[in-house]
Amino acid sequence: MTFTSTTAVDLAAGIAAGDFSAREVTTAFLDRIAETDGELNAFLAVDTPGALATADAVDAARAAGEPLGPLAGVPVAVKDVITTEGLATTCGSRILEGWVPPYDATVTANLRRAGAVIIGKTNMDEFAMGSSTENSAFGPARNPWDTNLIPGGSSGGSAVAVAARQSPLSIGTDTGGSIRQPAAMTGVVGVKPTYGGVSRYGLVALASSLDQAGPFATTVADAAALHAVMAGHDPKDSTSIDAPVPPVVAAAANGDVTGMRIGVVKQLTGEGFQREVREHFQKSLDLLAAAGAEIVEVSCPHFEYALAAYYLILPSECSSNLAKFDAIRYGLRVGDDGERSVEQVMAMTREAGFGPEVKRRIMLGTYALSSGYYDAYYGQAQKVRTLIARDFAQAFEVADVLATPTAPTTAFPIGEKVDDPLSMYLQDIATIPANLAGVPGMSLPVGLDDKGLPVGLQFMAPAMADDRLYTTGAALEAAVGWEARP
């Protein structure tokens, strides 16, 4: 049996049945990482001793007849923005290089309770700021379909780990598309749950009103299995929703879209999207219609302002959140020779520790929040956010889910857009509205472009109706019959 080509659901079932051991599975993926990651740079840390110890504990529990968790023995790679007790968490930044958290994030703790094997921490754009993983202080992750191309971002390492079969599952975070866009670029399934559906406790904050952790997987069913384990109410997170987790696993097993209304957002399907992206999007709609769904057009007129609003709200929250990295409490400290003032040490550390994209966004946010500009910029952006939420509400009156291309293009060469921030920001034009409104979104692969690169399609659903994503995702996955591999 080739473990690295087996779904997470089948691995969990096989381990539980005693068909093979958790150690065998974990070793296979550790070997795969050792074989491929020198070229891909998907991982910032691989926890071989910890992973094998967890696997052995799962095997011992099964041998003793103890009940196993739903993901017992299944490796999971975790984005390096989520705290892991005893394992370094850098956020892709020099300013946290070598920091080892003394506590687990709630997501991490949920994985451990489910018996999952945390195999390592994945590469990312620094503090999740970017759409290509080129902003990592530790070098870019590379797309396994073509290592000269970006894998998307900011959760590029997590997407690469799954696409390259280094891990059957991984966790990313999505602030404006940072799960869905790299999922599209690497040909895997990626889900941003409803805001508040997954705890943010222990997720190092970029923009607190936008950040959300979610799963990467090779199939919709695998994504649902990880989603169900990650999610749930957490009193440690004041924004956590106190409600049952939507029945995502059952929805993924269902996949019946008969009578379901799928709304096509007309503002996100036309010019500006690569030809092959538009073609595969239309083919996917045709497949859904053949499966019994009703395709309807919806208008969301304020979506065109989403990018501008997002790049005022996000930098403002980033400026506030990153003020804690001050060289005094933890992390990097530069210039502390006993003669410089605290302010001088702080300034030197932040200059040395933060990369150019982080500095750019901190300055934008500080300006937008400054006296005399708060109402004109941040305040106005929040009003636009309200209008976008109303667009969603009106669209969901006539559609059960919304559909758009995930990203305007397929993967592009490393370095091509790194000096053109606006062009890079436009990669998230279709994904940002869901973050601003707090609704869930899913990207899944639906075809290849003329260069043989993956194309993704996005579904969005009302808040706490995440199960609709899995129903429509499972239906489209079955209709497309996606089997392409890098």
Keywords:
40% helix, 486 residues, alpha/beta, 16 helices, globular
What is the CA–CA distance across the termini?
20 Å
Question: What do we call the CATH homologous superfamily of the domain at 3-256 and 467-480?
Answer: Amidase signature (AS) domain
Measured on Cα atoms, how large is the radius of gyration? 21 Å
On the 0 to 100 scale, the average pLDDT is 96
Shape: globular
Fold-level CATH name of the domain at 3-256 and 467-480: Amidase signature (AS) enzymes
Q: By helix and strand content, what is the structural category?
A: alpha/beta
Pick out the low-confidence regions: none
CATH architectural name of the domain at 3-256 and 467-480: Alpha-Beta Complex
The helix content is 25-40%
Order of helices and strands: HHEHEHEHEHEEHHEHEHHHHEHHEEH
What does this protein look like?
This protein has a domain at about 5-255 and about 465-480: Amidase signature (AS) enzymes, CATH 3.90.1300.10. Helix content is about 40%, strand content about 10%. It has 16 helices and eleven strands. An eleven-stranded mixed beta sheet has the order 1-3-2-4-6-5-10-11-9-7-8, sandwiched between helices. Strand 7, helix 9 and strand 8 (about 295-300) form a beta-alpha-beta unit. About 60% of the residues are buried.
List the helices and strands and how they pair.
Blueprint lengths: L7 H10 L4 H19 L2 E4 L1 H16 L11 E5 L26 H8 L3 E6 L33 H8 L5 E5 L6 H7 L2 E4 L20 E5 L2 H11 L17 H7 L6 E5 L9 H16 L3 E5 L7 H16 L20 H12 L2 H13 L6 H24 L2 E5 L15 H5 L6 H6 L3 E8 L5 E7 L5 H15 L6
Parallel strand pairs: 2-3, 2-4, 7-8, 7-9
Antiparallel strand pairs: 1-3, 4-6, 5-6, 5-10, 9-11, 10-11
